[in-house]
Design a protein that fits this description.
By secondary structure, the protein is of the alpha+beta class. Helix content is about 55%, strand content about 20%. It has helices at about 5-25, 35-65, 70-75, 80-100, 115-140, 145-170, 260-275, and strands at about 110-115, 175, 180-185, 190-195, 200-205, 215, 220-225, 230-240, 250-255. The strands form two sheets. The chain has a five-stranded mixed beta sheet with strand order 5-8-9-7-6, with helices on one face. Strands 1-2-3-4 form a four-stranded antiparallel beta sheet, with helices on one face.
Length: about 280
């Protein structure tokens, strides 16, 4: 068995086992001390194995002459790199949100279009539930090792929820004066649409089913927020985009949510009919 397969198998076995111990403890069942100790040892061993495998792959790439950046990209899977980048950007957005800085990527003359309306209450509800869960588990779990693991996971979960919401607030959709459109969902999705690729735009409220970024067979891309979209943009040519985990796709129709869809459509139509300035 290769080192990479061994590391993947260890993660696939140990992480669910650790979560099972946490659930058992939360249910009021007291596992034997030896089981808890073994679980902590296995988790530590799995993390060390993952680190060793990544270091070995990185060293092998460096030995072949790759520069540090290329070696790191070869050692760490693309999906893992993108998830880490998403979290770093979300963390930076949380800082921007707390400091009340201007929205990211919005210049003078641009129209920022918020899209967080349908999900704000749900996000704050999830944060509240997570905080209550953290407090309750702190009272129910008497074992220090399990308590520390649960506390770290819960605090990280609360911070991640706030960071995801902050990323959506500070990274709105943008309609530029030239009629181009930038569609975003927090730090997870970013699509720039040139003005000459936009054929038409209209207010169109829909409730599609699917994931956050959903592409149908006929080239319709749904960027869903709170289970709905409010704007439909037809394109004159296919536009490529990148999914949150790195997969590529092409869309000919864009359907997305904006809290004020009329303003977005008016800005797109206004840019389309406004003649360019003469120099």
């Amino acid at each position: 068995m290769s080192r990479v397969r061994a590391a993947r198998l260890a993660a696939a076995v140990v992480i669910p086992g650790e979560l099972l111990l946490v659930l058992v403890a939360a249910a009021g069942v007291r596992p034997p001390a030896a089981v808890l100790a073994a679980g902590e040892v296995l988790v530590a061993a799995a993390l060390l194995l993952e680190a060793w495998v990544l270091r070995s792959l990185y060293a092998a790439e460096r030995a072949r002459g790759a520069v540090p950046g290329e070696a790191l990209r070869a050692a760490v899977p693309a999906a893992a790199r993108r998830l880490l980048l998403h979290e770093l950007r979300a963390g930076a957005s949380l800082v921007r949100w707390m400091l009340r800085r201007p929205p990211h990527g919005v210049a003078a003359g641009d129209l920022p279009a918020a899209y967080t309306g349908p999900q704000t209450a749900m996000m704050y509800g999830m944060v509240f539930v997570s905080v209550v869960e953290t407090a309750v588990l702190a009272l129910l779990i008497p074992w220090p090792a399990v308590h520390r693991v649960v506390l770290v996971l819960d605090v990280y979960g609360v911070a991640l929820l706030l960071a995801m919401h902050a990323a959506c607030v500070t990274r709105p959709h943008v309609v530029r004066p030239d009629g181009s459109l930038r569609l975003r969902y927090g730090a997870l999705f970013d699509l720039a649409v040139p003005a000459d690729a936009i054929a038409s735009a209209r207010v169109d409220r829909r409730y599609p089913e699917g994931r956050l970024v959903s592409l149908s067979g006929d080239g319709v891309l749904d960027l869903i927020v709170g289970g709905q979209t409010t704007v439909t943009v037809k394109l004159s040519r296919a536009v490529g985009f990148t999914r949150p985990l790195g997969a590529r796709g092409e869309a000919r129709v864009l359907r997305f949510h904006a809290d004020d869809p009329g303003a977005v459509v008016a800005a797109l139509r206004g840019a389309a009919v406004t003649p360019p300035r003469q120099g």
